[in-house]
C-alpha cells in the first residue's frame, strides 16, 4: 500500500489551517507533558 505524495499534495496539506491545528496540538501535548513531569517528582 505504497502511495507516492506529489509536491502539490504536500503543499495543499501545508496550509495555514493545518499548521495552526498542529501548533495547537503540540502546545497541548507540551503542557500535559510538563504537568506530568511536575507530578512525578
Notes on the protein architecture:
The protein is mainly α and 41 residues long. The protein is elongated and about 45 Å long. The mean pLDDT is 83. The N and C termini lie far apart (45 Å). It has a domain at 16-40. It is built from 2 helices and no strands. Helix content is 78%, strand content 0%.
Strand content: under 5%
Question: Which term fits the overall shape?
Answer: elongated
Name the average pLDDT: 83
pLDDT below 50 for ≥5 consecutive residues: which ranges? none
Largest sheet: none
- Helix/strand class: mainly alpha
Secondary-structure element string: HH
* Rg value: 16 Å
Number of strand segments: 0
In DSSP terms, counting alpha (H) and pi (I) runs of 4 or more, how many helices? 2
Please give the alpha-carbon distance between the first and last residues. Answer: 45 Å
Helical content stands at over 70%
Q: Summary?
A:
The protein has two helices and no strands. It is an all-alpha fold and 41 residues long.
Provide the descriptors you would attach to this structure in a database record.
41 residues; mainly alpha
Secondary-structure blueprint:
Layout: H1 7-13, H2 16-40
